[in-house]
Design goal:
- There is one protein chain.
- This protein has 244 residues and is of the alpha/beta class.
- The protein contains seven helices and seven strands, in the order E-H-E-E-H-E-H-E-H-E-H-H-E-H.
- A seven-stranded parallel sheet has the order 3-2-1-4-5-6-7, sandwiched between helices.
- Strand 4, helix 3 and strand 5 form a beta-alpha-beta unit.
- Helix 1 crosses helix 6 and helix 3 runs parallel beside helix 4.
- The chain is globular and about 65 Å long.
């Protein structure tokens, strides 16, 4: 297989698993990292700061210099920070979160579109948090809701080259992002999930691999939830069950 896939945020928990699965499937992989360099020798590794337009422009120019068209772009990069310390701090968090989680997707889409082949793919990682509000994670929820909307707009923008654009919305995934929540909390999260567990990175990468296949070509402009079914449960009904 002579197809090149660009993975943004390739050193994260989900991103690294996607990289490994793509390599196993025979794709050529170019990956980006923010702080921790990608520890997979077969991957061309490029630093990228999604909060910096200068860094993004430099990155795009480097990708262009490779001379190889892209089959797919997969953006796994994302941040979450807890709000509530002060108004000034919350606004800083909002601006940074929107920049990384939402604005960067739009910039990368516009900048990389000329490099993506016809019938290629553009995938973004959203979150089930997009379906809810968050008193201390308003910026994260809003950014991911924006990603869901952006998927619909980009599939229209990319129609001339018939590039499929989709967003994947995971629930709780066992990565570094949730390490600080504690074992007790994660056990509770698993217990209320219909499948009685949280996701592993391969649960997400399996869907990514499928969406790159020819068989998935007609799936376009969609937000696909991968959460074991927990968003199907009204949490108030759990309280009701305990009282009946």
């Amino acid at each position: 297989m002579d197809k090149t896939v660009l993975v943004i945020g390739a050193s994260g928990g989900i991103g690294r698993q996607i990289v490994l699965d793509l390599l196993d499937a025979g794709y050529n992989v170019v990956g980006t990292y923010s702080k921790t360099k990608i520890d997979v020798p077969e991957v061309t590794s490029i630093p990228l700061d999604l909060t910096s337009s200068e860094s993004i422009n430099s990155f795009v120019n480097e990708v262009k210099s490779f001379g190889n068209p892209l089959y797919a772009v997969i953006n796994c990069a994302g941040i979450v920070e807890y709000e509530g310390e002060s108004i000034e701090k919350d606004i800083e968090i909002w601006n940074r979160t929107i920049a990384v989680n939402l604005t960067a997707n739009y910039i990368l889409a516009k900048q990389l579109y000329p490099l993506i082949i016809e019938h290629g793919r553009f995938l973004m990682v959203s979150s089930t948090d997009a379906m809810f509000g968050g008193a201390i994670t308003a910026s994260y929820s809003a950014s991911k809701a924006g990603v869901n909307s952006l998927a619909k707009s980009l599939c229209l923008l990319f129609k001339e080259k018939r590039i499929s654009v989709n967003a994947i919305a995971p629930g709780w995934v066992n990565t570094r992002m949730i390490e600080g929540t504690g074992e007790k909390f994660l056990k509770q999260i698993a217990e209320i999930n219909p499948l009685r567990r949280i996701a592993q990175p391969n649960d997400i990468s399996n869907l990514v691999t499928f969406l790159l296949k020819t068989e998935s070509e007609y799936i376009n402009g969609q937000v696909i939830t991968v959460d074991g079914g927990y968003t199907n449960q009204d949490p108030t009904l759990l309280l009701e069950e305990d009282t009946v």
